[in-house]
Amino acid sequence: MCTIGFIAISYSFAQNTEAVTSKNSWLKAGISASAPVGNTSNFSSFALGVDLSGQFMASKNVGLGIASGYTNFFGKNGGNDFGIVPLGALLRYYPASEGFFAGTDLGYSFLTNSGSDGGFYVKPQLGYHNYDWNIFGFYNQVFISTPGSDVQNVGVAATYNIRFK
């Protein structure tokens, strides 16, 4: 299955020889709300975040880019807040110019106020998109080297597409 996906993405890239332009590239800015899951729910009951990414449409259906932002996990029972700052690559598949999409962000998340530096993260997403908006559900996991310390949350987000003129 992975081989088929790799071949499909490679074919998409081969079909697009256009450089990055204002027609195929934009910024995405948005907000997210999520609930900590797993061991993270022992320390936090709610998280709010801001998302910022840059996307380039490598083909009619495949978007690539970089993703970052900040998510604050609010401390539970008088505990301290902590946060994650992701820095990663994004991959999106849009079957049509409007409708459902699937994607993921992959990279490294830096932790703030947590006693850990961070770790590799994965953030799969499924949602709806149109010309201006992306509304999606996601699961996020930051893999920490200390056993049982992974940061996990599940939530919803909305991003607005800021087009270049």
What do you see in this structure?
The chain is mainly β and 165 residues long. It has one helix and eight strands; from the N terminus they run αββββββββ. An eight-stranded antiparallel beta barrel has the order 1-2-3-4-5-6-7-8. The longest helix has 14 residues, at 2-15. The termini are far apart.
Question: Any key phrases for this structure?
Answer:
elongated; eight-stranded antiparallel barrel; 8 strands; mainly beta; Porin; about 160 residues
The proportion of residues in beta strands is over 45%
Between the first and last Cα atoms, what is the distance in angstroms? 39 Å
Which value, in Å, is the CA radius of gyration?
17 Å
* Protein structure class: mainly beta
List the topology elements:
Blueprint: H1 2-15, E1 25-36, E2 44-57, E3 62-75, E4 82-93, E5 99-112, E6 118-129, E7 133-143, E8 151-163
Antiparallel strand pairs: 1-2, 1-8, 2-3, 3-4, 4-5, 5-6, 6-7, 7-8
In short:
The protein is mainly β and 165 residues long. It has one helix spanning 2-15; strands spanning 25-36, 44-57, 62-75, 82-93, 99-112, 118-129, 133-143, 151-163. The protein has one helix and eight strands; from the N terminus they run H-E-E-E-E-E-E-E-E.
